[in-house]
Amino acid sequence: MPHTTQKVIAITGASSGIGLATAKLLAQSGAKLVIGARRADRIDAAAEGLRRDGADVISCSLDVTDRASVSAFVSQAVERFGQLDVLVNNAGIAPISALDDLNVDEWDAMIDVNLRGPLYGIAAALPIFRQQGSGHVINIVSTAGLVLAPHMAVYAATKNALRTIGEGLRLESGPDLRVTNVSPGFVQTEFASSIADETVRSAIEKRMGEIGLSADSIAQTVAFAINQPSDVEVGDIVIRPAAQN
Ligand code: NDP
């Protein structure tokens, strides 16, 4: 992947799943990385593993619901590597449930992590991109916002809102800022672990186990968008298991 080499890429939520797989793939191609998540032990271990393989990676404790934390995370790229080429807004949660269960705290949490988090990332990255005269925002969205299923209303709403933010950013930006929305279907990760309802969680985990893609497939998709020549913007990619409706 020659185009990725030398790029400085910040990835939120890289302690597991899609974010970690993306960090590994991009590190192999020579990118310099800033990776963040709340679980300090996991994100530090991930960075340590990548450094052992020769990659230039720093890890940060990051909570995307905290604007100052996101700002400090993004600043690390410039402080350590002198630039930021790509922000991957990947961190996300899905404590899904029926609306009638009134799990309002979980609705708030999804809005904070899945929507406010990427917005804080955009707020931190845009001034850097403007000053550099180039940049790329990649949002990890979801097919849940494209085809609705029961229990998914709030989660899907946050992802559709993020898709809209991405499209708005693209429309307002000149050719020096690229915006990509990647919408995965089922992917085999720890993603369902936050679902409190045992019946809903086991149904999702069963489906993930049966048809879920590897996180590596999503990492390849992110790398594809990054590796295009600078005048090529990959706008929206839907990547789901062939067996998913
Ligand atoms: P994981 O649960 O494996 O990864 C989620 C990541 O987000 C973790 O690294 C977690 O780290 C991080 N995270 C959660 N909350 C915060 C926070 N407040 N601040 C910083 N980091 C946070 O699941 P996936 O890899 O599957 O999820 C990645 C993205 O992919 C999400 O946006 C999700 O919506 C999306 N997606 C996933 C699909 C799937 O089927 N798996 C399908 C479609 C989209 P930590 O807990 O250490 O903070």
TrEMBL record:
Gene3D superfamilies found in the cross-reference section: NAD(P)-binding Rossmann-like Domain
Keywords: Oxidoreductase
Transmembrane segments: none
Highest taxon above the source species: Bacteria
Any one GO molecular-function label of the UniProt entry: oxidoreductase activity, acting on the CH-OH group of donors, NAD or NADP as acceptor
Keyword Oxidoreductase: yes
One annotated Gene Ontology cellular component of this protein: cytosol
CDD domains registered for this protein in UniProt: SDR_c
Family: Belongs to the short-chain dehydrogenases/reductases (SDR) family.
Protein name: Oxidoreductase
Taxonomy of the source species: Bacteria, Pseudomonadati, Pseudomonadota, Alphaproteobacteria, Hyphomicrobiales
